[in-house]
Specification:
Layout (H helix, E strand, L loop, with lengths): L4 E9 L6 E7 L5 E7 L4 E8 L4 E8 L4 E5 L1 E4 L6 H13 L1 E2 L2 E9 L8 E12 L11 E6 L2 H8 L8 H6 L6
């Protein structure tokens, strides 16, 4: 397999959350095609485990789906920031919690057909409340805890729970 040859690029949407680039590519067959690529930065998804062993989850209103979604703490990596720097920042901003340690569990592409964006997965250990949430004006986040990872898995895979692909993906890195 060979990558497509990029013949031209045009930025058609310059938005920090959804920057879109139109590319004219040459396919391996020699044909040309338009390809639209989301150039958004990577994001972190954090599994916060409290000192008690409970696991923090959150309910968020997600306008794209028009639904309240249950998921782990997550957020975009800021320019010049590493995933390791973004994880504690996002945990504090979205939950008001800090952690004694963070362990990187892995990473996956969010949507490899249309983006190079990756989700970087972290487990935050021995979390405790240390402040208040510091949400962006468009964020509505309600934090709650469940008994343990098994309960989090059960809730997030329940057919009645609205969740995200990233949240389901991180569960592949969670112990059973």
């Amino acid at each position: 397999m060979k990558p497509f040859k990029i013949l031209s690029r045009e930025k058609i949407l310059d938005n920090p959350y959804c920057p879109i680039e139109k590319q004219i590519v040459e396919l391996t067959t020699g044909d040309k095609a338009e390809w639209f690529v989301n150039k958004a930065s990577d994001a972190v998804i954090i599994i916060p485990v409290l000192k008690t062993g409970e696991v923090l989850l959150q309910k968020n209103y997600k306008h794209g789906s028009g639904k309240i979604v249950t998921e782990f703490c997550a957020g975009m990596i800021d320019p010049g920031e590493t995933p390791e720097q973004a994880a504690p920042r996002e945990l504090l901003e979205e939950t008001g919690h800090t952690a004694e340690s963070f362990t990187k569990l892995g990473e996956v592409f969010a949507n490899p057909t249309g983006s190079s964006m990756k989700y970087h997965f972290f487990r935050a250990e021995n979390c405790e409340k240390s402040g208040n949430q510091s949400l962006d004006e468009a964020e509505q986040i309600e934090v709650f805890s469940v008994k343990n990872i098994a309960e989090a898995r059960k809730l997030l895979t329940d057919s009645e729970t609205h969740t995200s692909a990233g949240t389901l993906a991180v569960m592949g890195f969670m112990p059973s």
